């Protein structure tokens, strides 16, 4: 681990992310993500490319379930980097996110040797050996460049955001006893937010911004086809239409992409030959998870369907 | 935008910084917070992409300059307008230099036949029926085939739109864009559906692809706009954006950012207040971790006990907001304040009232977009019965049954309202009970202090129980927060 930045800055200048493997254009990123099992929109690929090329973090916002976290996974697969994930929650603090001293071990060290003077011991126990690296420190101290995912940053307090600033702009962490820990390699940082509160300007300023929305029907169809290639095209098309329709309704939790994939898998498993009323009634709970939502969706689908006997469907749904 | 990124010394690229700065100025004028850091990022990003795709160019700028969904929306509008104005200006300069040559060159004209037809048409003021037929035929032919070629069609369509405007719209422009567009649309009479009633030789008998038609009309609009710029020699007013697509009643206060900043100050003020109010601490928890760490100095023997720091408890806030017609002008401000409060505090409950009280905490927590928020509030809050006039007496008694048991000394109660009771019972006894339960009670009144207690304002009956403020702008809100932060303001509670 690189400790005092001054000493290591010379011989361990942060190298650019895996120069050999790193894609050099948005098209290559797009192909790479596709190969990693993620179909990016044009803008997503472009922003990822910029993040890799400029070494800047990406702030990804969008409704729940549009693949923000999955994007980080796919980027890690594409660049063959380790994914380090920091799940944020209210009350997350430095000791959980950055580093902590291993007090027990330090104590043992002191008690094991009572003889040497305090100065030596002090020099001893505040070394990396006694440091417990938490995700953020691990991400920048890693020998190999990594993908760092800071998930749901909007769940933390604004104070925590302020703490992230040093890491995001300079890729370094200050530990009072050790000095500056500078990154050996530039990690690719993704911050996701469900937009439940406004993030600070200072944080946004350091990031590239990417808004992920629900995909267009064609795009979602392509995603479904990629994950369930065996599903009949007509069914997949109908499925995407229904999911898009449900998302326009006033439901508590609109179906995510993961849920439409789940639904496609369910239909495949059931061997359904078409999405008719019975299939819909029995599998709707895969994409709609609230009781109140089920009623809303059931009514809308019942009304819009042109088949006779829709009244039954409405009641059943 | 088909310049090669690798040649920064070419004249067009050399003027790029000034152009980008001009774009940044327009964005700032629309309220996008843009710093030098963002601009530097934008330049760095442009180095990394090829400029052959306009979509990439725009995305790269968007990702670096606009840092929220709302900003991105603004960015897209401003970018569109900016590019249109730039290209229109450049084109009108070119055309003024040599209009004739420009028309004959017509780079990449659709195809031989339509080109001759259109050139023939160009310049004649009135079209004969036969000429119109020929134009229609050419249009239908190109629009129908537009879906087949991949990318070339966009520039084809653009040329076509330009010729159409020259042939049909240039001479007799009404000056109003929508009217001109309507006129051209009616003259051409192109539709997407089949029309068997027309004679077999009419080109419109078989419908035109809907997508191509829509794109063509969008291009027509752009061309008309460009023609208008050329004719009047002036650009359309740059202010239009805010007035048109960001009309005030649905958008947050312009200085929403400053409201948010002020609320952040309020948050700190309230946090420290509750800390002081609790006085000397009587109990403390031992912090094992810190004690152990301190004991290292004494060889592992815990001599000094470290206590867990007493974090100030999070303040609980109850906001009660009047949304009746008498405060309409202030309600956008009130809602902005509520919006910002929800960003800053976790433990907040909000209520709206007119004749009845309705809790809207959930709506604020579920909805981030201000416009959608005000829509949902008006749809779901359900606070008016019949008259639409505020009934304070009823509101307080309702509020007592709703929250009296939840209130305690840590709570702060904030009322946003004008205290105009429309002659009804002010219910000050109920209000006094509420205020007595809460730790502090503030009343933000949007009316100037001078008007208080005139007419049906009953502010005087509430003043003994709360700290009243006159507040309807961000600047005044800041004063309120500053007043709150002063320690002696706590005395009144």
Topology:
The complex is a heterodimer of chains A (317) and B (493).
Chain A: H1 5-11, H2 26-35, H3 42-54, E1 58-61, H4 68-79, E2 82-87, H5 94-97, E3 99-101, H6 103-112, H7 118-125, E4 131-133, H8 135-141, E5 146-151, H9 158-170, E6 172-175, E7 179-182, E8 188-193, H10 201-205, E9 208-211, H11 217-227, H12 233-248, H13 257-270, H14 277-283, H15 291-304, H16 310-316
Parallel strand pairs in A: 1-8, 1-9, 2-5, 5-8
Antiparallel strand pairs in A: 3-4, 6-7
Helix pairs in contact in A: 2-3, 2-4, 11-12, 11-13, 15-16
Chain B: H1 11-14, H2 16-29, H3 36-48, H4 54-65, H5 69-97, H6 99-105, H7 112-121, H8 129-146, H9 152-169, H10 177-188, H11 210-232, H12 240-245, H13 256-277, H14 288-295, E1 316-322, H15 328-344, E2 348-353, E3 357-359, H16 361-366, H17 370-380, H18 392-403, E4 411-416, H19 428-437, E5 440-445, H20 459-462, E6 467-470, H21 474-485
Parallel strand pairs in B: 1-2, 1-4, 4-5, 5-6
Antiparallel strand pairs in B: 2-3
Kindly describe this structure.
The complex is a heterodimer of chains A (317) and B (493). Chain A is of the alpha/beta class and 317 residues long. Chain A contains 16 helices and 9 strands. In chain A, the strands form 3 sheets. In chain A, strands 2-5-8-1-9 form a 5-stranded parallel β-sheet, with helices on both faces. In chain A, strands 3-4 form a two-stranded antiparallel sheet. In chain A, strands 6-7 form a two-stranded antiparallel sheet. In chain A, helix 2 packs across helix 4, helix 11 crosses helix 13 and helix 15 packs antiparallel against helix 16. Chain B has 493 residues and is α/β, with parallel strands linked by helices. Chain B folds into 4 domains: 87 residues; 134 residues, no CATH class; 202 residues, 3-Layer(aba) Sandwich (Rossmann fold); 33 residues, no CATH class. Helix content of chain B is 54%, strand content 6%. Chain B has 21 helices and 6 strands. A 6-stranded mixed β-sheet of chain B has the order 3-2-1-4-5-6, with helices on both faces. In chain B, helix 20 links the parallel strand 5 and strand 6. The two termini of chain B are 64 Å apart. The chains are: A alpha/beta (317), B alpha/beta (493). At the A-B interface, helix 3, helix 6, helix 10 and strand 9 of A face helix 3, helix 4 and helix 14 of B.
């Amino acid at each position: 681990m690189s400790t005092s930045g001054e000493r290591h800055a010379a011989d361990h200048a942060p190298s650019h992310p895996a120069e050999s493997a790193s894609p050099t254009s948005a098209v290559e990123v797009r192909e790479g993500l596709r190969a990693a099992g993620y179909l990016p929109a044009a803008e997503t690929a472009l922003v990822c490319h910029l993040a890799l090329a400029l070494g800047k973090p990406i702030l990804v916002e969008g409704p729940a379930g549009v693949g923000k976290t999955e994007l980080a996974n796919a980027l890690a697969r594409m660049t063959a980097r380790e994914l380090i994930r920091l799940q944020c929650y209210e009350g997350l603090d430095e000791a959980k996110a950055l580093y902590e001293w291993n007090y027990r071990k330090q104590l043992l060290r002191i008690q094991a040797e009572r003889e040497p003077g305090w100065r030596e011991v002090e020099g001893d126990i505040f070394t990396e050996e006694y440091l417990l690296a938490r995700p953020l420190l691990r991400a920048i101290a890693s020998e190999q460049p990594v993908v760092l995912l800071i998930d749901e940053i909007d769940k933390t307090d604004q104070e925590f955001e302020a703490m992230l600033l040093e890491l995001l702009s300079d890729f370094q962490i200050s530990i009072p006893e050790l000095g500056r820990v500078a990154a050996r390699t530039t990690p690719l940082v993704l911050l996701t937010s469900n937009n439940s509160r406004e993030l600070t300007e200072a944080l946004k300023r350091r990031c590239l911004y990417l808004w992920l929305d629900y995909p267009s029907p064609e795009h979602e169809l392509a995603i479904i086809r990629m994950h369930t290639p065996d599903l009949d095209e007509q069914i997949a098309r109908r499925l995407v239409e229904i999911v898009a329709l449900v998302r326009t309704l006033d439901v508590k939790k609109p179906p995510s992409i993961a849920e439409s994939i789940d639904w496609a898998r369910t239909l495949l498993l059931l061997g359904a030959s078409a999405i008719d009323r019975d299939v819909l009634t029995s599998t709707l709970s895969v994409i709609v998870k609230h009781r109140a939502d089920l009623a809303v969706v059931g009514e809308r689908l019942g009304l819009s369907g042109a088949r006779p006997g829709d009244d039954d469907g409405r009641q059943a749904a | 935008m088909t310049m090669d990124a690798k040649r920064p010394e070419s004249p067009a690229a050399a003027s790029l910084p000034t152009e980008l700065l001009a774009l940044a100025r327009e964005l700032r004028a629309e309220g996008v917070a843009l710093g030098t850091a963002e601009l530097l990022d934008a330049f760095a990003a442009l180095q990394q992409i090829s400029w052959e795709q306009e979509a990439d160019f725009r995305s790269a700028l968007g990702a670096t300059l606009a840092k929220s969904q709302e900003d991105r929306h603004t960015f897209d509008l401003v970018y569109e307008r900016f590019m249109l104005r730039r290209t229109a200006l450049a084109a009108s300069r070119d055309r003024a230099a040599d209009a004739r040559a420009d028309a004959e060159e017509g780079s990449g004209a659709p195809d031989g036949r339509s080109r001759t037809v259109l050139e023939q048409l160009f310049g004649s003021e009135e079209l004969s029926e036969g000429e119109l037929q020929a134009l229609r035929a050419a249009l239908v032919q190109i629009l129908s085939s537009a879906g087949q070629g991949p990318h070339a069609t966009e520039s084809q369509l653009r040329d076509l739109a330009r010729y159409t405007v020259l042939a049909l719209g240039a001479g007799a422009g009404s000056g109003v864009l929508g009217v001109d567009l309507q006129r051209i649309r009616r003259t051409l009479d192109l539709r997407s559906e089949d029309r068997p009633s027309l004679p077999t030789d009419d080109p419109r008998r078989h419908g035109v692809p809907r997508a191509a038609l829509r794109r063509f009309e969008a291009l027509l609009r752009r061309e008309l706009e460009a023609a208008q710029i050329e004719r009047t020699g002036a650009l359309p007013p740059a202010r239009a954006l805010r007035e048109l697509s960001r009309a005030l009643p649905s958008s947050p206060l312009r200085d929403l950012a400053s409201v948010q900043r002020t609320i952040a100050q309020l948050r700190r003020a309230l946090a420290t207040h509750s800390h002081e109010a609790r006085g000397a601490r009587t109990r403390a928890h031992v912090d094992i971790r810190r004690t152990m760490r301190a004991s290292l100095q004494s060889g592992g023997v815990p001599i000094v006990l470290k206590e867990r720091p007493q974090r100030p408890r999070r303040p609980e806030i109850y906001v009660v907001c009047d949304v009746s017609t008498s405060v309409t002008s202030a309600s956008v401000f009130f809602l902005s304040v509520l919006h910002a409060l929800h960003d800053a505090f976790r433990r907040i409950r909000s209520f709206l009232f007119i004749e009845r009280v309705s809790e809207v905490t959930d709506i604020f927590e579920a909805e981030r977009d201000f416009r959608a928020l005000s829509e949902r509030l008006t749809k779901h809050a359900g606070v008016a019965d019949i008259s639409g006039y505020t009934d304070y007496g009823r509101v307080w008694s309702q509020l007592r049954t709703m929250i009296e048991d939840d209130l305690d000394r840590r709570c702060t109660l904030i009322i946003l309202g004008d205290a105009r009771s429309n002659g009804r019972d002010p219910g000050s006894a109920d209000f006094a009970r509420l205020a007595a339960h809460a730790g502090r009670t503030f009343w933000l009144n949007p009316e100037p202090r001078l008007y208080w207690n005139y007419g049906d304002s009953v502010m005087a009956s509430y003043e003994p129980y709360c700290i009243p403020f006159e507040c309807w702008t961000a600047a005044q809100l800041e004063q309120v927060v500053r007043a709150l932060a002063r320690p002696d303001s706590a005395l009144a509670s």
